[in-house]
Amino acid sequence: MTFNGNWKIDRNENYEKFMEKMGINMVKRKLAAHDNLKITIEQNGDSFHVKESSNFRTLEIDFTLGVTFDYSLADGTELSGSWKLEGDVMTGTFSRKDNGNQLITTRIVQGDELIQSYNYEGVDAKRIFKRA
């Protein structure tokens, strides 16, 4: 279970541009860039329990690979979608409920880092976490 563990945000790449493309206002973008996000992932077969804890909120999510579920981003944007696992890469395909646009998220563990990548409307970003 490669993803299992506690992860703490280490750095971001192009995250502010990504949030801008998502329509997140400047104040929220500045706060989110320094959210001190921690993620705990527990995988049991195809089922996942994820706890996200930041300076702004704590959220627990349970999902099963391939099964659609609803999710809210920290800024309140509502999404619906699912995760799949192909080899060592976990890919989430989500649609925004407000405009139908697609957000693609991938997670991969490389060494002691969890790399979470995003693509929205042609803008790519990464958040890199270290094992806590």
> Which percent range fits the helix content?
10-25%
User: How many helical stretches?
Assistant: 2
Q: What class, by secondary structure content?
A: mainly beta
Order of helices and strands: EHHEEEEEEEEE
- Subunit organisation of the chains: single chain
**What portion of the residues fall into strands of 2 or more residues?**
over 45%
Main sheet: strand order: 4-3-2-1-10-9-8-7-6-5
Distance between the termini: 16 Å
Instruction: Let me know the largest β-sheet.
Output: 10 strands, antiparallel
Number of strands: 10
Based on CA atoms alone, the radius of gyration comes out at 14 Å
User: What form results from the Cα inertia axes?
Assistant: globular
Q: Uncertain runs with pLDDT below 50, 5 residues or more?
A: none
The whole-number mean of residue pLDDT values reads: 94
Structural features, described:
There is one protein chain. A hairpin with a 2-residue loop joins strand 6 (78-86) and strand 7 (89-96). The chain is built from two helices and ten strands, in the order βααβββββββββ. The chain is mainly beta and 132 residues long. It starts with a strand and ends with a strand. The mean pLDDT is 94. Helix content is 11%, strand content 58%. The radius of gyration is 14 Å and the shape is globular. It has a ten-stranded antiparallel β-sheet with strand order 4-3-2-1-10-9-8-7-6-5. It has helices spanning 15-21, 26-32; strands spanning 5-13, 38-44, 47-53, 58-64, 69-72, 78-86, 89-96, 102-110, 113-120, 123-131.
Could you outline the blueprint of secondary structure elements for this entry?
Layout: E1 5-13, H1 15-21, H2 26-32, E2 38-44, E3 47-53, E4 58-64, E5 69-72, E6 78-86, E7 89-96, E8 102-110, E9 113-120, E10 123-131
Antiparallel strand pairs: 1-2, 1-10, 2-3, 3-4, 5-6, 6-7, 7-8, 8-9, 9-10
